[in-house]
Amino acid sequence: MKENTPPKKELSTDIQDRLNGNNIIAVASAKGGVGKTAFSVTLAHAFSKNGLKVLLFDGALGLSNIDAHLGITPNENLETVLKMNDPLHLAVTHDPAINADIITGHSGDKSLAALNGPQLKLLTDDLLILASYYDKVIIDLGSGIYDNIIQLAKISKTCLTLITDTPSSLTDAYQFIQLLSEQDPAKDIKLVVNMVDTYSEGEKTYQNFVLIYF
After folding, report:
1. Across all residues in the chain, what is the average pLDDT?
2. Full-model pTM
């Protein structure tokens, strides 16, 4: 007698997209002091105000500051769950001020900053799974072009790279974009001109960046 087996259940397109990181936005700057964390928080708040379920992940491993920016003190954070080998979702804290879930790190923790390849792979895999429960996930990347920053950027669908009109910001942003593009040629990388007073100032900074580097 032929055994009847239920048909294989296919994942919905929406869930599959989330598991592929298509709902993840990385916010980068390469250079500190360009307003990246404030931008990430504002973006997360904007999504939540539009009725979306949002996770804000502090990707500045070892130099976390989202908790200080929001004025919150989570009972659990990325450091504690990694040390205890706990599921990543146990590090989630809801912040009612922006109506979003937050995962913070622990500023000054060298163990987070020194995560190696296998440990970083486990973290990004766990983050992709957790991301499937959200409409949008914002990763506030650390400054620089270190390996852990690039690896976190690679799991995102879109990487927003912030620049200002300072030469060092433009140079660092170009180096970051070049490195990420080499490792992930299909990455959707967009420029965001931050800390300008008018649209015309932002347009000028953008055009200068394109003229010099592209």
Report:
1. 85
2. 0.86
